[in-house]
């Protein structure tokens, strides 16, 4: 190892380390992302879910097919408005209906239409059996069509046809009413059967609502736990989050300085690389020159010996050429070691790592300086949890629990009477079927009479000789009339009872409910306890129809200050105050120490001290050396030598000189050119590095001034931004909680839906099917009257008569001669 090889190896190792550090810094600068936004939105709670509710109405039993007709009839019977004062008086004291004449008069006046219908029904009930008995007795006495004699007239066929078609139309109307009876009876049965399950489902829906409201409030409380936990985790990670923000705030102003330092290190490494190549090239060239010099010395020694030989003719002329045979073996670039030392010092200064180490230490310093205040803040966050939970406990509606208990009791009682209801419904259905069948029996008798009578009747036949078929038709008609007299008055009694029940249910319950008068009456009557906050049942129902939350439906904002309940500013203010009192101490940093500043200041001077011109001059001298010229001069002398031995020695010298010249041209001269290129490149790089050093000094000075002036302000500003971010999470939770409680918790659509379902079950299904049954039955009872009259009259045209009335329409009329006056 040569004397200069050790320092060069040290410089090379330093250059490699600096290059590796530079690559790592550049990779980190390219991959380091910007820190997250100073304040995110936090973990947003999910939208409050709503429970699922069951359909409590079920399939349409088909009870409304006669609703328009029945309601029109009841509207005619009862045109009076809803009797609010009367109902209010009777609900307070029902005995007034008997004891108070005014109340009784008002009730009778309201029920005038019903009383008229009842009077007509009673008249029907009384007269129908009396008329039947009278008709039977009268016919038994041979009167009232009981005499088996039919007077034959020219219009008998026209009367028969008129009676026939009139009875036919009446029977069709009766049959239509009878079909409505069957259908309404079946609809009533289905309505009652479905109504039990529908009411149970309605109660279940209400209980689901009652159960879900506390769960929704619990969800809101649990969301506060998530917010507190998120803030707690952020405070626990304050070193990473706040420290990264402080780092980022520093990196922007420090970037020009850091970039200039990176550029300086790149220039220093490039300069060091050029210096290493220059040293290597100089060493290589020096070795080649040493070899050339040794060879030239050997040839010169031989020539000297030959020239000084007395036998050498005219050899004294070669003395000048002999003096030219020399090569300057000293090839040293002045002051090159100084610049090498300066480059190594720049690389070893590691200016980039000094700044990076300072920035990288910020998160840990933040963690260490805030450890005590973080522990206190976490305890206060637990207090925020307790405060929010305690505040929302005031929203727990105890009345809902009482309502749920009452509904459960109702379900138990309904389960107990469910069997009796089904049994009674089945009996009622059976009675309805029997009544419908009895009415159908009259329709069937009329139908058979209308079919058999004309089928067996022969036009122009003697009434005493009518066929059995026609007689059977007449008998069926009389049977239909008899059945009608037999049980129509009983059916009319049933019609009156059902009419009074179903009609008053519709006019006093269903109709006022549909037009809103019933809710207005409930709110204005004072029959139910008044609700707080000036809330009315009608308002609650209207809001629930819109699926509004219970907050607005019950107007809870009048007695509950939700914003104050969820206000945690007291705790957050304490946390902010504690952080204000704490200090995050970032020690000052000196980016360029005085020693490094001196090194950077000496760097341009050391570059100027390198004497590249003298080196170029030496290299030029070497390239100007031409041994072939000396060899030619020696050849001239050698040709004139008489002594062969001397001549041979001179020829050998010229051959050696020409060989050395060839070696110089092929080996030394290319190395010299390479060395010149390196010197030129090093000169350019030196000028560039000199400018970079000036930039580094300027930018690092600015960065140092920024750190000295703004470090404290940046730390405080970023700390305040970080804390405000955490407090913003509570503000976001408060806004979400208020919005959720006031807009989503307890959407009471299921309550109005349950009430609507109960109304549909009671009014639209049960009451309408009940009203349809008594209306269709009354319809049939009314048309029994023309059916009886027409059946009795038409039957005589088909039955066999005992006596006949001869009627000849072909009577020959003889002309009677006119009387003449005799003349006297």
Strand order of the largest sheet: 1-2
List the secondary-structure elements in sequence, H or E. HHHHHHEHHHHHHHHHHHHHHHHHHHE
Find the structural class using helix and strand composition. mainly alpha
Q: Are there runs of 5+ residues with pLDDT below 50, and where?
A: 1-34, 807-814
Mean pLDDT: 74
Helix content: over 70%
Strand residue percentage: under 5%
Number of discrete helical segments: 25
Distance linking N and C termini: 207 Å
Secondary structure topology:
Elements: H1 5-31, H2 67-77, H3 84-92, H4 96-99, H5 101-110, H6 112-140, E1 149-150, H7 156-236, H8 238-307, H9 319-324, H10 336-349, H11 351-360, H12 362-369, H13 371-393, H14 398-456, H15 468-514, H16 517-525, H17 537-545, H18 550-553, H19 562-565, H20 569-581, H21 594-608, H22 612-624, H23 627-639, H24 644-743, H25 749-795, E2 803-804
Parallel strand pairs: 1-2
Summarize the structure.
This protein has 824 residues and is mostly helical.
Describe this structure in words.
It is a single chain. By secondary structure, the chain is mostly helical. It contains 25 helices and 2 strands. The protein has helices spanning 5-31, 67-77, 84-92, 96-99, 101-110, 112-140, 156-236, 238-307, 319-324, 336-349, 351-360, 362-369, 371-393, 398-456, 468-514, 517-525, 537-545, 550-553, 562-565, 569-581, 594-608, 612-624, 627-639, 644-743, 749-795; strands at 149-150, 803-804. A two-stranded parallel ribbon has the order 1-2. Helix 8 packs antiparallel against helix 10, helix 14 (398-456) runs parallel beside helix 25 and helix 17 packs across helix 25. It is elongated.
């Amino acid at each position: 190892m040569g004397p200069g090889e050790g320092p060069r190896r040290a410089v090379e190792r330093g250059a490699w380390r600096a290059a590796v550090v530079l690559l790592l810094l550049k990779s980190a600068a390219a991959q380091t992302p910007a820190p997250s936004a100073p304040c995110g939105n936090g973990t947003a709670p999910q939208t409050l879910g709503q429970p699922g509710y069951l359909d409590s109405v079920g399939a349409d039993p088909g009870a409304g097919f006669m609703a328009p007709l029945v309601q029109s009839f009841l509207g005619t019977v009862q045109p009076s408005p809803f009797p609010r004062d009367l109902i209010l008086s009777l609900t307070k004291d029902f005995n007034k209906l008997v004891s108070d004449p005014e109340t009784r008069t008002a009730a009778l006046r309201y029920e005038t239409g019903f009383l008229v219908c009842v009077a007509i029904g009673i008249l029907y009930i009384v007269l129908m059996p009396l008329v039947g008995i009278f008709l039977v007795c009268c016919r038994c006495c041979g009167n009232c069509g009981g005499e088996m004699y039919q007077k034959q007239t020219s219009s008998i066929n026209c009367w028969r046809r008129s009676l026939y078609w009139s009875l036919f139309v009446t029977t069709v109307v009766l049959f239509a009413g009878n079909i409505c009876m069957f259908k309404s009876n079946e609809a009533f049965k289905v309505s009652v059967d479905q109504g039990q399950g529908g009411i149970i489902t309605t109660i279940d829906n209400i209980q689901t609502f009652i159960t879900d409201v506390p769960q929704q409030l619990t969800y809101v409380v649990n969301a506060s736990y998530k917010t507190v936990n998120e803030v707690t985790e952020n405070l626990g990670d304050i070193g990473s989050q706040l420290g990264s923000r402080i780092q980022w705030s520093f990196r922007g102003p420090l970037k020009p300085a850091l970039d200039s330092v990176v550029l300086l290190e790149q220039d220093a490494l490039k300069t060091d690389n050029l210096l290493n190549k220059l040293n290597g090239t100089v060493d290589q060239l020096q070795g080649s020159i040493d070899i050339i010099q040794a060879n030239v010395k050997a040839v010169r020694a031989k020539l000297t010996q030959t020239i000084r030989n007395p036998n050498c003719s005219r050899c004294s002329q070669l003395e000048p050429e002999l003096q030219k045979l020399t090569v300057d073996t000293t090839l040293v670039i002045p002051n090159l070691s100084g610049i090498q030392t300066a480059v190594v010092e720049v690389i070893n200064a590691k200016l980039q790592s000094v700044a990076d180490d300072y920035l990288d230490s910020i998160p840990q310093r933040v963690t260490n300086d805030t450890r005590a205040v973080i522990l206190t803040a976490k305890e206060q966050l637990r207090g925020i949890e307790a405060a929010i939970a305690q505040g929302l406990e005031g929203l727990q509606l105890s009345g809902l629990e009482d309502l749920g208990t009452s509904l459960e009791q109702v379900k138990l009682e309904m389960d107990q009477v469910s069997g009796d209801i089904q049994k009674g419904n089945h009996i009622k259905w059976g009675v309805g079927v029997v009544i419908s069948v009895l009415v159908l029996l009259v329709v069937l008798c009329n139908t058979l009479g209308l079919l058999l009578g004309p089928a067996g009747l022969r036009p122009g036949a003697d009434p005493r000789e009518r066929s059995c078929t026609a007689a059977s038709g007449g008998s069926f008609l009389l049977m239909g009339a008899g059945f009608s007299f037999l049980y129509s008055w009983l059916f009319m009694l049933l019609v009156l009872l059902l009419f009074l029940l179903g009609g008053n249910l519709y006019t006093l319950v269903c109709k006022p409910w549909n037009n809103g008068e019933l809710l207005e009456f409930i709110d204005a009557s004072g029959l139910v306890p008044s609700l707080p906050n000036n809330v009315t049942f009608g308002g609650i129902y209207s809001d629930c129809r819109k699926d509004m939350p219970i907050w607005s439906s019950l107007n809870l904002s009048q007695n509950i200050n939700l914003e104050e309940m969820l206000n945690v500013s007291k705790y957050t203010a304490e946390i902010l105050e504690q952080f204000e009192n704490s200090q995050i101490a970032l020690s000052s940093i000196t980016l360029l120490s005085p020693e490094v500043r001196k090194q950077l200041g000496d760097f341009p001077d050391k570059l100027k001290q390198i004497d590249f011109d003298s080196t170029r001059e030496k290299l030029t001298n070497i390239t100007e050396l031409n041994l072939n010229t000396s060899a030619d001069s020696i050849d001239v002398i050698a040709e004139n030598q008489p002594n062969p031995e001397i001549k041979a020695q001179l020829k050998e010298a010229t051959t050696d000189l020409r060989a050395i010249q060839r070696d110089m041209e092929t080996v030394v001269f290319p190395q010299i050119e390479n060395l010149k290129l390196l010197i030129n490149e090093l000169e350019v790089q030196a000028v560039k590095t000199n400018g970079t050093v000036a930039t580094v000094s300027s930018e690092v000075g600015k960065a140092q001034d920024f750190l000295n002036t703004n470090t404290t302000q940046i730390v405080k500003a970023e700390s305040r931004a970080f804390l405000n971010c955490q407090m913003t999470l509570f503000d976001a939770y408060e806004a979400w909680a208020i919005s959720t409680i006031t807009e989503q918790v307890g959407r009471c659509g299921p309550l109005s839906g349950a009430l609507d379902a109960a109304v549909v079950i009671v009014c639209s299904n049960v009451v309408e099917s009940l009203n349809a049954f008594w209306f269709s039955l009354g319809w049939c009872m009314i048309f029994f009257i023309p059916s009886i009259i027409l059946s009795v009259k038409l039957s005589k045209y088909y039955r066999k008569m005992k006596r006949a009335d001869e009627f000849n329409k072909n009577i020959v009329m003889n002309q009677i001669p006119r009387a003449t006056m005799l003349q006297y």
